[in-house]
Each structure stands twice: as C-alpha cells, then as structure tokens.
Design goal:
The chain has 4 helices and no strands. It is an all-alpha fold and 124 residues long. The protein has one domain. The radius of gyration is 17 Å and the shape is elongated. The chain starts with 5 loop residues before the first helix and ends in a 12-residue tail after the last helix. The mean pLDDT is 89.
Length: 124
C-alpha cells in the first residue's frame, strides 16, 4: 500500500522556495549592505533576519515531517537532507552553496515519498 503524506509535499514545496531564497540571499544582503553604506540606513540586519526566519520555518517543517514519515514508514532521506541544509544555512550564510544543493536534493527526495520496503525493519 502506497502511503502519501501532505506534510511531505509541503516540505518539498518549502524546499523549492528555500532553494530560491538561499540562491538570492547573498545578493540581497550584499545590496542591502551597500545601500546601508551609501544612505546610512540599517536594512542589512532585517534582510538577513528574513532569510534566517524562513530557514528556521523550513527546519521546523522538516522535523515535523521526519517524525510523521517515520511513523508512516516513508523514507526519511529528504527530511534529513533538509534538516542538514537548513541547519547549515542557519549556522552561517557562508554555507549558502551547500545549503542550496541540499535544499534541492531534499525537495526531490521529500516529494518522492518512497515507502520503506518490508525488508527494512523500522524500530517503533
């Protein structure tokens, strides 16, 4: 019986959005920093905080989806990759490239929702 969870679809879509946000994060922060330097405003912190909040939300979604997927017998690979990728991005924006790659891979594996076979036992 093929099981599907809506939270896995949500996690996959969030990963696609986060891959785009991670891709533009450096440019947005750098342009905000240049704007701060020329106009004397303080927008860089707010721009960076926006990206960090989005990554934290994605991390929370992946943790919830990991727990629900484990109970349903669905592969956890996408959620583990998503947790690692969002964790890397939350540690520092210097890890944006690995976080971008991991977000893309997490989206693929989360959307596949491959069921764990009967040959693999799942501890409960």
């Amino acid at each position: 019986m093929k099981r599907k969870l809506k939270i896995n679809v949500l996690a996959g879509v969030v990963d696609i959005v986060m891959a785009f946000l991670i891709m533009i994060s450096w440019f947005a922060v750098i342009f905000a920093a240049f704007g701060d330097a020329t106009t004397g405003t303080h927008a860089t912190g707010g721009v960076g905080t926006f990206f960090y909040i989005c990554a934290a939300i994605a991390l929370i979604i992946h943790v919830i989806a990991l727990i629900r997927s484990r109970k349903s017998g669905i592969s956890l690979v996408g959620h583990v990759l998503g947790i690692i990728g969002m964790g890397c991005f939350l540690i520092t924006m210097f890890l944006a490239l690995p976080a971008f790659v991991l977000a893309i891979l997490a989206a693929i594996f989360s959307l596949l929702q491959k069921n764990v076979g009967d040959s693999t036992s799942i501890p409960k």
